[in-house]
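batch job 7 of whatever, protein = Sigma-54 dependent transcriptional regulator
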Amino acid sequence: MAEPLKGNVLLVDDDPAVAKVLGALLAQAGLTVHTAKNGAEALTLLGQKPIDVVLSDVRMPGMSGLELLSEVTRLFPEVPIVLMTAHGTVPMAVEAMKAGAADFVLKPFDREEILFTVRKALLRAQGEAERPTLKTSTFVGDSTAMGQVEALLTRAASGTATVLLRGESGTGKELAAKALHDASPRHAGPFVKLHCAALPETLLESELFGYEKGAFTGAATRKPGRVELAGGGTLFLDEIGDITPHVQVKLLRLLQEREFERLGGTQTLKVDVRFVAATHRPLEEMVKKGEFREDLFYRLNVVPVWLPPLRARPEDIEPLARHFLEVHAKANGRQPFTLTPDALQALRSQPWPGNVRQLQNFMERLVVLSDGPTLTGEDVARELARQPGLMPLPAPSAPSSPLAPAAPAGATGSESKTLDSQRRETERQALLDALKRAGDNRTLAARLLGISRRTLYNKLEEHGLV
C-alpha cells in the first residue's frame, strides 16, 4: 500500500464538480487541499498559505493555466505547478516545461496517475525548498575570473559538445546553463531542466526517460520524459553527482548513442539533445571511490567550466550588490537605494559562503527591512547579525566607567543571558520585523529571511507567533 501523501495542494479549476471530486481524492490520500476558482484567487492564496504544490486546469476564463504558471514561476519559484488539460499534446507539454511546469496530466485522469504525479511534485518541492535560484538573466561583474567563464561559455555555445558546470552551490550554474542555451543555435528550442537530487531513483528514471501506459502502478497513459521534451533544444541535468549507479548506466548509453527506451517500452527512440550537467560534488574523488562511473564522468566532462566562488572575485561584490538593490527596489515598489562607503566595506568584508545566491537574498532583505533610501554600514551590520553563516560586524565598545564595578566571572542572575536565549530573542525579532515589512504576507516574509515558507511556518510556531 502506498505511503500516505503529506503536504498542502492548491487546486485551481473553474469547474466546481471537478474541484469537488479531485479535492476529495487528494484529501483521501492524506493531503491538505485548498481550492481556487481562478488564477487571481490562486495567487492570493499562495501569498497566505504554505502551499507545496499547485494543480491547475489549463483552460479557465480570465487567466489561463499557462498564464498562472508564468506568475507562479515569477512570484513563487519554489512552488512546483502541475497543469491539467483535456487537450494535452507533446507540443503543449514542451511549452509548459519550457515555461517552468513541474508536470502535466491529461483529462479525464486516472486516480493512480494523478496521485503519482502529485507525489513527484511534492518530492521536487521538498528537494528544492531551500534552493532559491538567481533571478538575473546575465552575469554581473567585471572580474577576470567571470570574464574567463563567459568567454568559455561563448565558445562552447556554438557547438553541441556536452558541458559540465562545476562549482560551489550558489555560484550560478543554472544561470550559466541558461546563458549557454540562449547563446547557442538551439536557442529557439526548449530549455528543459531536471534536478537529479530532488527525486529517488525510480521517479528520476521515469522523469528522465518517460514511460508507457501500464509500465507501473499509476502509469495510466504514455508520458514523454524530459529527454524527449528537450528534443531540438538543451537538457540541463542539475546535481548530476547524486544519481545512482543504475541511472548512471542508462545515462551513459543515452550520451553515447543518443537513444533510449521509455520505461515499459520496447521501441528505441533517437533524440537530438544538447546535454549540460552541473554539480558541486568532487566527481574525481567519487570515481576513485567507485561511487561514480569513470566512463560517464569522461562523457560528461567534455567541456568543463568552473564557476568561481564569490570570495575568489571580491571585486564583483559591489556591482552585484548595486544590481540586486536596483532589481529588488523595483520588485518591491521602493525608490532607488544608495550604498555608503562603510556599507560597501561591510559587504566586501564578508566570506559569503552561499556565494551570489546568498548575497542576492541579503540585498533583498536590506531593501525590504530598511527605511532607505541610503543604506549605511549600520544597516548592513543589523542584518548581518540576523543572518546565519555571516560574521556580525564588531560593535564599537563603550567607554568603561571607573565607577562601574566589573561583573564577577561567575555571575549569574536575571541580568545574565545565555547564548541560546539571545539567539532566540534575535530570531524572534527578525521574524516579527520580516512579517511587519511584508504586511503579514508570509511568503514574502520567508523570501526576505532567505528561508523556505515551510521553515518560516515552523519558526513562527516555535516562537508562538502563529
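notes: The two ends are 35 Å apart (CA to CA).
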